[in-house]
Amino acid sequence: MATEHKEIDAVSGMATTGHEWDGIKELNTPLPRWWLWIFYACIVWSIGYWVVYPAWPLITTHTKGVLGYSSRAALAQDMAALAARRGEAGRALAEASLEDIRKSPDLLAFAMAQGKAAFGDNCAPCHGLGATGSKGFPNLNDDDWMWGGTLDAIHFTIAHGVRSDDPDTRVNTMPAFGKDSILTKDEIGTIADFVLSISGQTPGAGADLEKGQQLFADNCAVCHGEEGKGNPELGAPNLTDRIWLYGGDRASIVATITNARAGVMPTWKNRLDEPTIKALTVYVHALGGGK
């Protein structure tokens, strides 16, 4: 119940508004004048903003404002200006071979700068900003390449991807030896012990490495090679260098043999232009692992 009787609050010494709810009285504390004047000025400013800049949505468009300014148009102008500045170098990059780019100091510097920017925008979400990779995403700084580390091989991988929707994409298929009942659980464990041994690790006690070697030769050597050093033409990784895409402990190796792996890399030829793909190729090649 509200009353209109005004009084002086005994605690604060401030007059009340006369409003009371369940014994709680409202103090009469108006906003400071300076705050009110700023508030009124903001209202006036907003009216001016509505007139000068795009502000009100319409059915199919919006008010343009007397200045005709648009952040989208400003961005388009900036991008056009950037493309114009890059035009000559970009055309030279498109026309030059990858080897010519690497041999030309000017083209190499331009390609490295553009490649680094493109890598951060497109590749870093999976490979990391420093290209160190993570589980399931290769480290691009080392000298371990599933599909080859030459300029041409890297360019092809970027352009066409791995297991992507591109008809020329890189594809390999590792059998799921356990899931598809090709090998028993014990046989998979025996192969895992052998893989541990050829990668310089120590398998568990009781590991039958002789049997593991035979099982490896019968089931794995066709892709990974008799010594387990891999085959870039097939995308089969080297199993002897202790560089692992999905983990090199026994449990991870058993999981890989049991269920197989099938990572996907998108094709970039329909998303990036050829100069950008070349710049990315040169940048990735120069990270320290290119051959």
TrEMBL record:
<keyword id="KW-1133">Transmembrane helix</keyword>
<dbReference type="GO" id="GO:0016491">
    <property type="term" value="F:oxidoreductase activity"/>
</dbReference>
<keyword id="KW-0349">Heme</keyword>
<feature type="binding site" description="axial binding residue">
    <location>
        <position position="174"/>
    </location>
    <ligand>
        <name>heme c 2</name>
    </ligand>
</feature>
<feature type="binding site" description="covalent">
    <location>
        <position position="123"/>
    </location>
    <ligand>
        <name>heme c 1</name>
    </ligand>
</feature>
<feature type="binding site" description="covalent">
    <location>
        <position position="220"/>
    </location>
    <ligand>
        <name>heme c 2</name>
    </ligand>
</feature>
<dbReference type="InterPro" id="IPR009056">
    <property type="entry name" value="Cyt_c-like_dom"/>
</dbReference>
<keyword id="KW-0406">Ion transport</keyword>
<feature type="binding site" description="axial binding residue">
    <location>
        <position position="265"/>
    </location>
    <ligand>
        <name>heme c 1</name>
    </ligand>
</feature>
<keyword id="KW-0375">Hydrogen ion transport</keyword>
<feature type="binding site" description="covalent">
    <location>
        <position position="223"/>
    </location>
    <ligand>
        <name>heme c 2</name>
    </ligand>
</feature>
<keyword id="KW-0812">Transmembrane</keyword>
<comment type="function">
    <text>C-type cytochrome. Part of the cbb3-type cytochrome c oxidase complex. FixP subunit is required for transferring electrons from donor cytochrome c via its heme groups to FixO subunit. From there, electrons are shuttled to the catalytic binuclear center of FixN subunit where oxygen reduction takes place. The complex also functions as a proton pump.</text>
</comment>
<dbReference type="InterPro" id="IPR050597">
    <property type="entry name" value="Cytochrome_c_Oxidase_Subunit"/>
</dbReference>
<comment type="subunit">
    <text>Component of the cbb3-type cytochrome c oxidase at least composed of FixN, FixO, FixQ and FixP.</text>
</comment>
<keyword id="KW-0472">Membrane</keyword>
<feature type="domain" description="Cytochrome c">
    <location>
        <begin position="110"/>
        <end position="199"/>
    </location>
</feature>
<feature type="binding site" description="axial binding residue">
    <location>
        <position position="127"/>
    </location>
    <ligand>
        <name>heme c 1</name>
    </ligand>
</feature>
<dbReference type="InterPro" id="IPR038414">
    <property type="entry name" value="CcoP_N_sf"/>
</dbReference>
<feature type="binding site" description="axial binding residue">
    <location>
        <position position="224"/>
    </location>
    <ligand>
        <name>heme c 2</name>
    </ligand>
</feature>
<dbReference type="GO" id="GO:0006119">
    <property type="term" value="P:oxidative phosphorylation"/>
</dbReference>
<keyword id="KW-0560">Oxidoreductase</keyword>
<dbReference type="Pfam" id="PF13442">
    <property type="entry name" value="Cytochrome_CBB3"/>
</dbReference>
<dbReference type="InterPro" id="IPR036909">
    <property type="entry name" value="Cyt_c-like_dom_sf"/>
</dbReference>
<dbReference type="GO" id="GO:1902600">
    <property type="term" value="P:proton transmembrane transport"/>
</dbReference>
<dbReference type="GO" id="GO:0005506">
    <property type="term" value="F:iron ion binding"/>
</dbReference>
<keyword id="KW-0679">Respiratory chain</keyword>
<keyword id="KW-0677">Repeat</keyword>
<protein>
    <recommendedName>
        <fullName>Cbb3-type cytochrome c oxidase subunit</fullName>
    </recommendedName>
</protein>
<comment type="similarity">
    <text>Belongs to the CcoP / FixP family.</text>
</comment>
<comment type="pathway">
    <text>Energy metabolism; oxidative phosphorylation.</text>
</comment>
<dbReference type="InterPro" id="IPR008168">
    <property type="entry name" value="Cyt_C_IC"/>
</dbReference>
<dbReference type="GO" id="GO:0020037">
    <property type="term" value="F:heme binding"/>
</dbReference>
<feature type="transmembrane region" description="Helical">
    <location>
        <begin position="34"/>
        <end position="56"/>
    </location>
</feature>
<keyword id="KW-0249">Electron transport</keyword>
<dbReference type="Pfam" id="PF14715">
    <property type="entry name" value="FixP_N"/>
</dbReference>
<keyword id="KW-0997">Cell inner membrane</keyword>
<keyword id="KW-1003">Cell membrane</keyword>
<keyword id="KW-0479">Metal-binding</keyword>
<keyword id="KW-0813">Transport</keyword>
<keyword id="KW-0408">Iron</keyword>
<dbReference type="InterPro" id="IPR032858">
    <property type="entry name" value="CcoP_N"/>
</dbReference>
